[in-house]
Amino acid sequence: MSDSTFDILRQLGPTISVGVISANFMQLGADISILEETGAQLLHFDIMDGVFTPMMTVGSLFVKGIKTSLL
After folding, report:
1. How far, in Å, CA of 65 to CA of 62, rounded?
2. For residues 70, 48, 57 and 4, what is the CA-based torsion angle, rounded to 10 degrees?
C-alpha cells in the first residue's frame, strides 16, 4: 500500500470494511455495485490459513479481477 492509501484509511477510521466473502459469487459484480451505490468505501478479502479457521481463501487472480472504485 502506498502512503496515500494509509492516509485515506486514517481519514476513514473508524469505518466498516465489507468482506468479499459475504457476497454472492454468482453475482459478484452486482453485489459490489450495490456497495458502491450505498457509500461503502472499503472492501476487504479474508485470507484464512487453516490455523484459527478452516482453510478457505481466494487467490491473487481473483483479487486482481475485481473492478471497483472501493479501497
Report:
1. 5
2. 30
